[in-house]
Amino acid sequence: MTTHSTSSTPSHPLDSLGWTPRVEAAFDAVALSSEHVLLPARVSAARRGGAEIRLPGIRDAAFAPAVRRAAHTDPAAAPCSGDWVAVRRSGDDWLVEAVLERAGTLVRQGVAKDSHDQVLAANVDYVLICEAADQGPNVGRLERFLSLVWAGGATPVVAITKAELAGDRLPEVVELVESVSSGADVHTVSAHTGQGLEALAARLRPGTTWVLLGTSGAGKSSLVNAVSGHALMDTGEIRHDKRGRHTTTHRQLLALPGGALVLDIPGVRRIDVPGDESGVDRTFSDVLAHAERCRFRDCVHDAEPGCAVQAAIDEGELDARRLARWNRLRRESEWNRSRGDHRVREERTRQWKALDKAARDAGRRKRGHHH
After folding, report:
1. What is the CATH number of the domain that holds 304?
2. Which of 167, 227, 318, 326 has a CA 20 to 30 Å removed from the CA of 176?
3. Could you report the per-residue pLDDT of 322-351, keeping only the tens digit for each?
4. DSSP code at position 43
5. What residue stretches are annotated with the EngC GTPase domain (predicted)?
């Protein structure tokens, strides 16, 4: 957590954009080794070949060749919403020279065997996962969101939205959400009645970066507007297209009146769990705690003797459906990891072949010179 300007520490012009000692060190490492005069900036929106940056004023910037090349090799390296970048002036234009080291990312898995992961947001401190009280809740989806956030290094916070619509079911909804959200704080809120908004607003500290996750209709925009007391985000009623799809088309970096930042990313329709299974394990820490008490290390928690997980299910301490979902997400995570390894191997082979060909061509040209 960054310490914000008090009378003793001089404030930095980028403090309001989430500038921290970690970012400063990352910027210095790049700036000191560059032949250009570089400035730090934060990306508020990314598009093909360029980005909207804040310095703090808003500018458009193109990608320098090195950044373009890196993004071509691995699309996940392209500047994205929330990235800190090093930029320079080039005539009247701005160029992104480098993307600074990231912390807290939100990554969408590539779906096909050779497709690349996509970084949706970077340098995220907290992810507010919104589940509408009147729509479920969908615990399987919530576990996926939690796994995604933990694996990326941010801290998940769960908001049960539209609490006023749950009626008598609210305690049951809250209990269910809390039962699958081990390690994450759960807030019950209503943008409509104001319930729980003050406690949530207290979490939104100055300079912290937040992302809101949740399906269309989870009330994300209404919640941000209610917490901030301003209409900062378009809500669905204003701009629904014919198919009722998500209305946020571009990503923005919104500053709330209290000083927290919200990265507005498009609705995530498909949630694949990352190949790094630490996120899944963290989400299911209750299941893991039982698993560690099993008699055999390689227990598959099915019907083996001395299985502490099955005993917990028999005792009513653990829901069998939760165990099934844990197994499914672990398998998916393993598959995504192997797919990623396969892609990395293929890319490496391709790079070696290209280098080899370049060396041969250079050798040929050199020999041609001598004759």
Report:
1. 1.10.40.50
2. 227
3. 999 998 998 888 888 887 777 777 777 777
4. E
5. 122-269
